[in-house]
Design brief:
Distance between the termini: 20 Å
Number of helices: 3
Number of domains: 1
Helix content: 10-25%
Shape: globular
Largest sheet: 5 strands, antiparallel
Strand order of the largest sheet: 2-1-5-6-7
Protein name: E3 ubiquitin-protein ligase
Structural class: alpha+beta
Strand content: 15-25%
Radius of gyration: 15 Å
């Protein structure tokens, strides 16, 4: 699915370096690519930020498939990275697939993401991540 995904803006001639899936509707988008940026009210929005406004509104959750990470976004140009709910046989996440071990869905982590979404706690989770990791503040999340 993601290995053969081609950017719709580039007429299918180029592979997307960061295909990202919306966890609400399942649509695959470009992430952090200039090819799919759009301008809305004099503000440049990346494909995920633009799709979030169309799909769900003020917050969104996306899976970066080649990094094995969840991106949480809000309408206030804020976001955070979280480890995806996939673990290896030792119960450890593998951000970026560095170890190369097979990964399996971890049901408790999945339930936590599901609860965050259903209880509309995405913005709260992002703020909590800002307290833990100050590097998240420097990202231009609207470009995702």
């Amino acid at each position: 699915m993601c290995a053969n995904y081609r950017c719709p803006s580039l007429n299918g001639n180029d592979h997307v370096t960061q295909p990202t899936m919306c966890l609400v509707c399942g649509k695959i988008l470009c992430s952090q690519s200039y090819c799919c940026q759009r301008t809305v009210n004099d503000e440049k929005l990346g494909a995920c930020s633009y799709h979030m406004k169309e799909c769900v509104g003020k917050s969104g959750m996306f899976l970066r498939m080649r990094d094995c990470q969840i991106i949480m976004l809000t309408s206030r140009k804020r976001g955070a990275y979280k480890a995806a709910p996939y673990v290896d046989s030792y119960g450890e996440t593998d951000n970026g697939f560095r170890r190369g071990n097979p990964l399996f869905l971890h049901s408790e982590m999945y339930k936590r993401f599901k609860r965050i979404w259903l209880h509309q706690e995405v913005a709260e989770e992002i703020i909590n991540q800002y307290d833990i990791n100050h590097r998240n503040i420097n990202f231009e999340w609207n470009h995702f």
